[in-house]
Amino acid sequence: MGMCFVPDCKHYSEKQTCRFFRFPLNKTERNRWISLIRRKDRGPSHFSKVCDCHFIDQDKKNEPTLFDFNINPASLAL
For residue range 21-72, what is the model confidence (pLDDT) as tens digits? Predict the structure, then answer.
């Protein structure tokens, strides 16, 4: 079972209908995702995934940009 790496997202791979994407292997792209996600308590592991709910049109090529903290800045999580 895997949980989405994005702060405050409670989507689990076994319980949700969304797809999950692994972090890119390319270092530049991976660092871009980390910067966009803004998780401060830890970095992603080799097994970390992000659900497609955080991508425009649920497409991995669009980078993860849809987050609660973009809508409500007061919801920034660790």
Answer: 999 999 999 999 999 999 999 999 999 999 999 999 999 999 999 988 776 5
d(CA 60, CA 21): 7
Q: Is the CB of residue 16 less than 8 Å from the CB of residue 51?
A: yes
Please count the structural domains in the chain: 1
Task: Read off the pTM.
Answer: 0.81
Residue 11 lies in a domain: no
3-state SS class at 12 = strand
- What residue numbers bound the domain in which 59 lies? 20-75
- Whether 34 is in a domain gets the answer yes
Which are the contacts of 72, defined by CB distance < 8 A and separation ≥ 6? none
Neighbouring CB atoms inside 10 A of 37's CB total 24
Give the rounded distance of the alpha carbon of 36 from its chain centre.
Answer: 9
